[in-house]
Every structure is written in structure tokens, then in C-alpha cells.
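Input.
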Amino acid sequence: MKSLLALVLVISLIACVQKPTMRLNHAEITSITPTLPPSLEMAVVMDVTNPNSYDVAVRAVRGQVWMVDKYPLTVDFHAPPDGFWMAAGKTTQLRVLLLMPIGLALQIVQEALYTPQIAYRFIGKADVTGTRTFHVEQDDYSIDERGAMTREQLMAVIPNSLVPH
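Output.
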């Protein structure tokens, strides 16, 4: 009887899952790689709001961020072993590391001179866990999010020494 009750609870949790929302908070350069071609290692900080009445953990995120709908950047985020937990009904900051070739960064900066916003789209999959008690896991949860960063946000990330004057 207990296992049947638990199964019904798990099924109802999965059926009632509300998709967390993401909003770009900011991005920052963490380092410049000495590889060829050189790349900027960026930490993209997202505000993730969990509208569910239970905690949700992200275990992994894979996919691509398309800058201005034509420049792909690979995302391959792996959380700590227990996952990155987001409290129920709260907004949590999630830091995701990306590599952006310096040439691409300069190309996007150049395009940003003509528009106040730089559009991006993330298309990928996430592995998530619902509730700390039951650890209901779902892999390959589809994500397709659009957003924009301002020219000022982009310029704050790119080191002045790299921007052509």
C-alpha cells in the first residue's frame, strides 16, 4: 500500500511539473585561454525561478547557445554529484561556464554597435531531479529559451584591450 501511494505521488509530481524560467543576470570573463585560437572563458549567470512547490535539481545541461541566431556556442554543464538544487518557489543563481573564441566575441561586439540588444537562444537538454525525498529523475528534458543581453552587458564582459577602437 505504501509503495502504491508513493507511486501515485510520484506520478502526480511528474504530471504537475512547471517549467522553471531563466533570465540572464550577467556574464563575466573568468579567464582567457592560451589555446589556439584563444578563447574567453565566460561565466554566464542565470536567475532560475522554480515555480514548483518542491525543490528541483539540475544534474546536467547540454546544448548550444546561438548568439544573434547565427553563432553557436557549446554548453556542457555538469552539476556537483548531488545536483544543483533550486528551492521551491524561489529564484536561484546558476553559473554556467562557456568558451567563446575571441574572434567570435569581437564579431558580436561589432554587430552590437548597430543594435541595443543582442539576441540569444539556448536549445538543449537538461537532466533534472524533482524532490529531495523521492529523487524523481527525468533525463533529456527539452529546453528552448530565447533572451537578449544589452550592448552594455556584452561590453562589460569583453576586456577593453580586445575591442578595436
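The longest strand covers residues 136-150.
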